[in-house]
Amino acid sequence: MMRSLFWNKSFALRSFLILLNLFTATTYALSQPLLPFQQRNLNTLRSIYNLTIYPNQVPILVNGPSAVPPKLFNANAAGRVDPVGNFTGFDDSIEYFFALAPVAQPGSRSVVISGAEIVEFTSSCPEVAASVVYLETKVMNPGGPDDGQKQSTLKQVAFWRFDECGAVLKYDAWIPNLNTWLEVNDVFSITDPQFQAGSIQSICAVSQQRCVGKNTQWTSMDDCVSTLSSKPYGNYDEAWGDNIACRSIHLVLTGIRPDVHCSHVGPTGGGKCVDFPYQLRYFSDQAIFGDPQGGTFQCPS
Questions:
Q1: Rounded Cα–Cα distance for residues 250 and 241 (Å)
Q2: Which domains are seen in the chain, by residue range?
Q3: In percent, how much of the chain has pLDDT > 70?
Q4: Which of 117, 150, 188, 264 to pair with 14, CA 20 to 30 A apart?
Q5: φ, ψ (nearest 5 deg) of residue 56
């Protein structure tokens, strides 16, 4: 046991130092002419993040996978995005990147992504890259005094693996401090009992509308509210779990693929909103990527 803990700590330290070295060299790479494969990889990432900017993602929400430009994601793309979860296949991947990017809600105050800048980038071989993106956000509130007001920036740190055509095949990304971002931008406060109750009411009302027939999750609105009120709310820095935060994320996706996501907002969590062991959540590389731990995002020797 002690040997296992020591190995995990050593592995984490080595991973941190590798990441630090990668990004220390990044400023130089961005300020100098890029090799063709570096420019190709950078262009792919810029195209992906550009589609998170509102309203660029709307055609994908309306028309589905066919609206995604070619050569962005491989058909077998798979990855991990903390704090949301694991994603397997093209549809799962584009849902995370585009369907979960916030959209303006008619008649209410919304916060959307208004710009995306890759501020750090390195790619030492055609197959692998690492990046840091700053996602600028603003208020959408037509007629309101704060319409267009700039909000705090979100960050995403990511490792990428590309196929031979330059499409993303595998990814491992992290959004730090998402929970704090939501609170400082007055999107909501998850510790507010009134907000928590309203969130449960919203999950139940929307899932009752979207999850019908074979996708039905609840016998009634009261059944839903009673069941979810007994669960912890959770938080958005670690949304994986049998909690309300996880279900609120998957509620968005029920509008895209109810046959897949309705069970995730239901009483059992559908294999997504369940309490995974820590090791399985963050170190299941073999299951997600098909590679030994730590081997996915290394250039071929």
A1: 12
A2: 2-187+278-289 (3.10.450.50), 193-265 (no CATH)
A3: 89
A4: 117
A5: -60, -25
